[in-house]
Write a structure and sequence with these properties.
4-stranded antiparallel sheet; 1 helix
């Protein structure tokens, strides 16, 4: 199953249970509507590592700023932002650079990411929400009124998804839906 994706003019980037990878737009358009080859033969897999080693990628999204494209990668140990190298090489981003998690997200399993056209980024863990406006990151912990944080029986619920509707962020959980305008 695909847990996140981002599309640029040149590539489609996917976070899946098999790992994170990108596919060239040429492969996708060349075989559109015809007999498809095994796309995994054309996949460029990529990963994120920190001082503890490789981190499983569980979600991703992206945005552009000027002529540059960026990927926000949700992992089991936080969110990371990387500048994409959209060339024909197999290197998706500068893997020689040590990556630091997005401020405040270290140690959180970032399961969903949504980006507005103004590059505001919302990152969701199992019970916490992080919103970046490009300069600051605001953390909304599980007890701040997010849906799904507690069921009527007092058991922990779960945040399930999020999406932007203009400048309004919609957040769903096992116990309802809320909207906020950060």
């Amino acid at each position: 199953p695909v847990s996140g994706f981002y599309i640029t003019d040149n590539y489609a980037y996917f976070a899946t249970k098999l790992g994170a990878f990108r596919l060239s737009a040429d492969i996708i358009t060349t075989y559109n509507g015809t007999s498809m080859p095994d796309l995994m033969d054309y996949a460029d897999f990529f990963s994120v590592t920190d001082s503890k080693g490789e981190i499983p990628i569980v979600s991703l999204a992206g945005y552009t700023s000027g002529s540059d494209a960026y990927l926000i990668i949700g992992t089991e140990r936080g969110a990371y932002t990387v500048k994409l190298t959209e060339s024909d090489t197999e290197q998706v981003f500068d893997t020689n650079k040590t990556l630091d998690p997005v401020t405040g997200t270290a140690g959180y399993n970032i399961t969903k990411i949504a980006v507005t056209s103004a590059n505001h980024i919302a990152m969701l863990s199992d019970r916490d929400l992080f919103i970046s406006d490009g300069s600051t990151v605001t953390h909304y912990p599980f007890n701040s009124g997010l849906p799904g944080t507690l069921t009527p029986s007092g058991l922990p619920g779960k945040l399930t998804d999020l999406t932007w509707n203009g400048t309004e962020l919609l957040i769903s959980g096992t116990e309802g839906l809320v909207s906020i305008t950060p």
